Amino acid sequence: MARKKKVVEPKHIKAASIDPDLAISSAPDGLFDPANPGHRWDIPLQAPGRSQVDFEERVDFKRLHEYRLARTRQALAKSKLGALLVFDQINMRYISSTVIGEWARDKLTRWCLLTGNGEPWVWDFGSAVRHHKLYAPWLPKNHCIPGLAGLRGAVSPSVGLFDQAAQEIYDILKQEGVADMPLGIDMVEPPFLFALQKLGLKIADGQQVMLDAREIKSHDEITLLNTAAAMGDGVYQDIFEALKPGVRENEIVAMATKRFYEMGSDCVEAINAISGERCSPHPHNFTDRLIRPGDQAYFDLIQSYMGYKTCYYRTFTVGSATPAQHDAYKRARRWMDDAIGMLKPGVSTDVVARAFPKCTEIGFETEMAAFGLNFCHGLGLGLHERPLISRLNSFKDPYELKAGMVFAVETFCPAKDGISAARIEEEVVLTPTGAQIITLFPAQELPIANKY
Q1: Domains in the chain: ranges and CATH
Q2: 21 pLDDT exceeds 80?
Q3: What is the 3-state secondary structure (H, E, C) of 210-241?
């Protein structure tokens, strides 16, 4: 009687079988590599609907979870750290794919631990732990632990919660064999840091390791970023139609915020609205100022879809535009196009930084004083990721651009009338052949809203 052949099931590659230096797997071909970004440069960048459907692939969230965790493991393996302890909600979401209310963003009351040998450990706020055990099956149930330490000083260190949490972390590090190695931390309350050090743990910078991990966006991340940008396109159409004399800056902010949440945004972090004499210098906020005929007005849309951010400036004039306003816009657009034209894989960031004007060209005495007006910054779960390209930092610390990076390019130019200014921002995906713009509301020429 013939013996039955044993069926060999395909298996997932573990992080341990991925060479961190080459960022490739040593396992046989054909197995699933979770750290592969899976770029589909052969098809258009997607900005699909928010629903999942059975007739086309949109965002594969399981694949997204596995990619982010694998990227973190790779970055950790390249470092000299034994583990990462993160309090930054962006890093916590990237590693564990857990998130609770946006109110928790600045409370330092949630944290996540990852060693090179283990699965993520999550300490969360009260009943959120029970929720994760029910609805986050990618996490081992015994790795979700109720946690509270100081709540930014609201609970005194004398209660002992910092010491208790530090001991729990130390015991896991010892259990997973890395207690003698440096522990990377991104941000922390001082009493928590002191409690960890008291146990003999050597603390190192973990934020750079996390930024290494988050640098290259997967196909799914790019799809989410492009969808978030598409939401911004729609909000700018609403703003363009609403801009008329008598409308206040804060009314535009309210309208934009409402529209984003209606479209599915999970956090509207900020809407900058600046008009008239407030345009120069840039104040980075909004007021209840009434918009008037001939005003220049610019806006920044900072919001997220499934955690993935937009940073999206557009400038308009109301009713009509002066030669000075047109001139400032043309200069800002030229700087923008020159910078985008240089964005290609393999190009060094210091080369791109030279495309931006010197601080003195826009009326500032130092590059520090002018920072944030003409530069690039990475986008992802965080608003400011790699690459960060400016005249302030890139000449001292240049690095190479890579396909799969996603970032925003910003320019600003004050007008010769002393009050107006042009502010433009494009979000781009770096493909193998160069930068592809994903912010599509027209910006090649100065838009005039409700033209007379």
Answers
A1: 63-213 (3.40.350.10), 219-449 (3.90.230.10)
A2: no
A3: HHHHHCCCCHHHHHHHHHHHHHHHHHHHHHHH
- Tokens of residue 322, six digits: 């002066």
Q: Identity (one letter) of the amino acid at 122?
A: V
Distances (CA, A) of 186 to 43, 85, 143, 180, 292: 37, 7, 20, 19, 45
- Measured N-to-C along each axis, helices 190-198 and 161-175 cross at an angle, to the nearest 10 degrees, of 50
Alpha carbon distance 161, 358 (integer Å): 50
Cβ–Cβ under 8 Å, residues 196 and 173: no
173: enclosing H helix or E strand: helix 161-175
Mean pLDDT of 124-134: 95
- Cα 32 to Cα 44: distance, rounded to the nearest angstrom: 24
Calculate the CA 272 to chain-centre distance. 18
d(CA 164, CA 178): 19
* 159 CA to centre of own chain: 36
Query: Which 3 state secondary structure label does DSSP give 389?
Result: strand
- DSSP for residue 88: S
User: What are the two backbone dihedrals, phi and then psi, of residue 380, each rounded to the nearest 5 degrees?
Assistant: -175, -130
Entry pTM: 0.92
Averaged pLDDT for residues 311-326 = 98
Residue 437's Cβ-count burial label (10 Å; 0-12, 13-18, 19+) is middle
pLDDT at 23 > cutoff 90: no
DSSP code per residue over 180-205: TS-EEESS--HHHHHHHHHTTPPEEE
Least confident of 28-37, 64-73, 300-309, 396-405: 28-37
Run of H or E residues at 165: helix 161-175
pLDDT of 401 over the 80 cut: yes
- pLDDT tens, 282-307? 999 999 999 999 999 999 999 999 99
Q: If DSSP codes are grouped into helix, strand and coil, which group holds residue 159? A: helix
Question: Is residue 13's pLDDT more than 90?
Answer: no
Residue 411 and residue 390 in contact, taking contact as beta carbons nearer than 8 Å:
no
DSSP at 375: E
Residue 249, C-beta contacts closer than 8 angstroms, at least 6 positions apart: 273, 274, 275, 286, 287, 288, 289, 291, 297
Residue 191: both structure tokens together: 């009493």
Please identify which residue in the block is written with the tokens 């260190």: 157
Spatial CB neighbours of 201, under 8 Å, sequence gap ≥ 6: 166, 170, 173, 179, 183
3-state helix, strand, coil in the chain (%, to 5): 35, 20, 45
Tokens of 22: 């080459």
Tokens 């993935």 -> residue: 308
Q: Is 400 in a helix, a strand, or coil?
A: strand
